[in-house]
């Protein structure tokens, strides 16, 4: 696709020898499409301002899930790039792009540890990567994948409010509660209220009826 205003929605591309979807020099609006088992899932270049990618899924592609080149002010929102051979999102020479609320998990399958969930290369400037899940769940042992990686030519990018790392690592799992060593169960609320509290705290208060009966008995003895 080249030139003009292009809108694509609810399309699928499976097993393509090249890119699942490609676009060049156009104002592109793409929503809820899937690219699977292709070379690059979505390969777009030199898109016009106000172009947007929303709700796209790129999975099990040989190279990158998304390859975005020379795009300015591109919006990438709520997209998923998982189980791709190289990077989940590969940005090259992009300026002012906003990648928000996206997911990049278990990528770099061709060379574990070599590619990141989001990669910035070739003078990427003033882009924003935020509010996204960029986790690595390939499991142990190392090498671990990086969440975001920028080369030496890229800078002035804003990367914040992302979830990174492996949420299921064994060392971060909740430790079991150790068993009791004394064999005696801890005091419950009921036993504490029966008088175990110090200084009479927690004891059952005397009622007005019991106080009155006691006074009458004492008066009768007199």
Query: Could you report the average pLDDT, rounded to the nearest whole number?
Result: 82
Q: Which residue ranges are poorly predicted, with pLDDT under 50 across at least 5 consecutive positions?
A: 191-198
Oligomer: single chain
Q: For the report, how would you describe the main beta sheet?
A: 7 strands, parallel
Distance between the termini: 110 Å
- The total count of strands amounts to 20
H/E element order: EEEEEEEEEEEEEEEEEEEEHH
Brief characterization of the structure:
Helix content is 10%, strand content 31%. The chain has helices at 189-196, 208-221; strands at residues 5-9, 12-14, 21-24, 27-31, 34-36, 42-45, 52-54, 57-59, 66-69, 75-77, 80-82, 89-92, 98-100, 103-105, 118-121, 128-130, 133-135, 148-150, 158-160, 163-165. It has a 7-stranded parallel sheet, with no helix packed on it. A 6-stranded parallel sheet has the order 3-6-9-12-15-18, with no helix packed on it.
How would you describe what is shown here?
The protein is mainly β. The model is unreliable at 191-198 (pLDDT under 50). It is built from two helices and 20 strands. The N and C termini lie far apart (110 Å). 10% of the residues lie in helices and 31% in strands. The strands form four sheets. Strands 1-4-7-10-13-16-19 form a seven-stranded parallel sheet, with no helix packed on it. A six-stranded parallel sheet has the order 3-6-9-12-15-18, with no helix packed on it.
Strand-helix topology:
Blueprint: E1 5-9, E2 12-14, E3 21-24, E4 27-31, E5 34-36, E6 42-45, E7 52-54, E8 57-59, E9 66-69, E10 75-77, E11 80-82, E12 89-92, E13 98-100, E14 103-105, E15 118-121, E16 128-130, E17 133-135, E18 148-150, E19 158-160, E20 163-165, H1 189-196, H2 208-221
Parallel strand pairs: 1-4, 2-5, 3-6, 4-7, 5-8, 6-9, 7-10, 8-11, 9-12, 10-13, 11-14, 12-15, 13-16, 15-18, 16-19, 17-20
